[in-house]
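Researcher: Final request for today, and then I'll write up notes for the group meeting. The sequence and the SMILES for zinc ion follow.
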Amino acid sequence: MKIGITDSYRSFDVQEDVVRRKGLYSEGGLGAAPGTSPHGWGMAVDLDLDPAAQEWMRLNAGRFGFVEDTLREAWHWVYRPTR
Ligand SMILES: [Zn+2]
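Model: Predicted protein-zinc ion complex:
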């Protein structure tokens, strides 16, 4: 099982670059509009997960406050504790 990190905090400028390179999520791309991404608040990570790690995250991440909330982005996990 492998859990790596490919991206975490992103500044506004870097988010603008992501949108330039990958397109807006609302238009079929992979970038949130600058100013709206949880990466800009330091509350999201993009993980490098093999299949076993993906399954482990889906079963256990919630216990640590992480949710998988973005369709088409199985690597994107947001920290959203419920209490
Ligand atoms: Zn992400």
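Model: Residues 39, 44, 46, 73, 76 surround zinc ion (CB under 6 Å). The two ends are 29 Å apart (CA to CA).
Researcher: Thanks, that's everything.
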